[in-house]
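User: Hello! My lab partner asked me to get a predicted holo structure for this protein. The small molecule is magnesium ion, SMILES included with the sequence. Please write out the structure tokens.
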Amino acid sequence: MNAIETINLKKSYNGNQIALSDTSFSIKQGEIFGFLGSNGAGKTTTVRLLNGILEPSGGNASVMGMDITKNQVEIHKLCGVMTETALMYENLSGIENLNFFGRLHGMSEAAIRERSFVLLEYLELTDAKNKKVKAYSTGMKRRLSIARALLHSPKVLFLDEPTSGLDPEAAMNVTKMIKQLSVEQGVTVFLCTHQLKYAEEICTLYGFIHKGRMLGMGTFDELLKQRNSKRYVEIRGESLPDIKSSELTHEGKIRITIQSDDDVTRILQDILSRGGKVYEARQVKWNLEDLYFSFQKGENL
Ligand SMILES: Nc1ncnc2c1ncn2[C@@H]1O[C@H](COP(=O)(O)OP(=O)(O)OP(=O)(O)O)[C@@H](O)[C@H]1O
Ligand SMILES: [Mg+2]
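Assistant: Hello! Below are the structure tokens for the protein in complex with magnesium ion.
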């Protein structure tokens, strides 16, 4: 079963401006999906639609097989959400907030206690758990909102910029936790972010969105194929022989287009057998940023 499926999902806030136009995609269970797009692309709108916070203007979607327009209560039970502005009760302590949200989810007191203990420990909030949230730093508030999203052990986790405002150590812990949830417990993660390097490190599937339209969706390799992206090998050396369709880079290296890893061996053997000297050989592949901008540029043509 797909964890998330949208069919021509559409949203217009005021009747004419389209925030999300006919969007169809599916995400299998256990994927870490990176939903990437510039400001105003429609990411948060999609998250709100999938959680039943907004009504679609057209099309439909399901989360864990449940219709988003009909099963909001069940979907809330299965999903954990950390939005851009996760609201907490500022005059309550961290642990009181978790107690409150745990009860909303119908969890028993014992279950809330046990789960809060683990999450607060993991997110390094144990010492601050009795402090009022208004005395928390930005990073502490964000970590508490991650704890809140995970409290009821959701099957699908929606995270809007989960590591923004976190120091590198806390960000690393959160990243580790997201990977663990996906690999060990099959939790599906729907992650909105602008940080392409971060997405590349953690995601198994990507969706590019621009002005409410999906530009591309797939695994990294699938998206590379869709753009016919090239791979090169760059070689620095001396007495390098002429090689067919090679070009010289501004650093004085020769750059040759390759189709596979084996081509590198063949090229090096050829150079060496013709008396060339190789000091450095490096494959240059597209990274997520190259891929993202290639899809964005395609859109602007
Ligand atoms: N409540 C609202 N009323 C009217 N228009 C809205 C509302 N919320 C969002 N929009 C519009 O919908 C479009 C998509 O916004 P959305 O918040 O989904 O973008 P986003 O991809 O999350 O952007 P960001 O990266 O800045 O968070 C934007 O043009 C935005 O102005
Ligand atoms: Mg947003």
